[in-house]
Each structure stands twice: as C-alpha cells, then as structure tokens.
Predict the structure.
Amino acid sequence: MFRLSLALLLSVFLAGCLKEEKVGLSYHAYNHTDEHIVSIVINGEGGILDAGAHGEGGGVCCVVLPQKWRPGLMATIKWQPEGDWLKDEQGREVIRDGKKVLVRAPWKERTVEVPKYGSEMGIFFIHFFPNDEVKVLVNTYGASSPQHPLPHPYGIKRES
C-alpha cells in the first residue's frame, strides 16, 4: 500500500512538472493581398486589427504560446476581409434609413505551423499572402529588417 501511495504521489508531482509555461506576445500583421483585413483572431483570441491591402497593422495583445518551442506547434488564424456595399439589380448602392448597407465578408481560417523560435521571443508576426496563404513566425525584428525572413508588403528595401 505504501508503494502505491508513493507512486500516486510521485505521478501527481511529475504531472505538475510537465505543464508548459506560457507567455503572451503582441501580434503584428503584414497584408500582402488586395483585400483590406478588418479583424484577426489567433487560436480563438484577438479582435480588431486593421491591416490595409498591401499594408500592415499591429501592436495588439496577446497571443499565448509555450515559452519553449516544440515540434508540431500550430496556430489557427481566422481573419475577416472588409465587406462590400449592398447593390441593387442595376449595380447601385442600396440606401436604407439614409445609410449605405454593408454586407460583411465571410471569415477565413487557416491552421499553420509555428516555425521554431528561441528564448528571445519578441512579436508574433502574421503574413497574409494571395490565395489565402498564411505564414506566421515569432521574431524580434519587423519585416523591414534583414533578420525577418519574410518580405515587407510595401516593398521596403531592407537595410543590411
């Protein structure tokens, strides 16, 4: 009985040691598409982040990630492009109660792998590319830096 109690106590202790330590990071988006993005959600968290077509948006908190990267780490990115004005059969914008009627665009979603990151985490960057391609990375440098592996949507020449 003593051995069983000791084994149970030891397993509870070890289970507590195996929990991942988490950290919250700000996120920043780079939009390489012709669509204006009005809202982004990462792993079910987030909110409004305005990333114009071929532009950027950022400084929003927070994305929660393990402090230590592990293989197979994934992130689910949902985003909503800007909608369009409702139009009648003749292609004219519909006015109701003195206001144009906005038709919201449907949400899009991709689950992508989070590339390896080190102990100095920085910011969670999201890059939106044409055809709903999404890439993410954790880096201390923005896209105008040569240490950022993905391009800047403005086509800014990177400093060497």
Observations:
- The first helix runs from residue 2 to 17.
- The CA atoms of residues 51 and 57 lie 5 Å apart.
- Confidence is low (pLDDT under 50) at residues 2-16.
- The helical segments are 2-17.
